[in-house]
Amino acid sequence: METSVRRGVLVLLFAVMWMVLQESYGLGSFAGGLLVGALILLIFPAPVHGLINPYVKRRGGFFRWLWSAGRLFVYYTWHWLKGNAEMARLMLRRDMSKITPGVLKFPLRVRQPGQVALLANLITVTPGSYTLEVSDDWDVLYLHVIDASDAEAALGPIRHIEELIMEVLQ
Description:
The protein is mostly helical. The chain has helices at 3-22, 27-43, 46-56, 61-92, 113-125, 151-168, and strands at residues 102-107, 129-134, 140-145.
């Protein structure tokens, strides 16, 4: 994919993001988003080469990367919504003695700093879980979870998010 095509795709993505952030879905808002996107790429040209280029050169190209990123977004959003509902259910219960918070050790398969940072931040943003620390050798994440009674059940969705992150960022 040529640089100009990548720039065009990024400008379109910026325009759509601009419309969503402005909560205005008219032609004027889209045109403003195109202008803002073009201005951002003029000032910060690095994303065209640094963000998308490595994923375009892999098997399947940009559209496979976009599909993988969409799957990560949809799965994480679903997991986040379930976490919110579970936290609301736990907080509305009168008997808090059944809640068993704890610290769990999550062995990492991701190795790149960006992958580890994304995973740690997605865990922290998810209700009921929090990333406490990344080990010095980047092999383990230490997580605080609201329900540590079944470690495998708590770590299963996180393991799936890690797999999706590896698919998107490798």
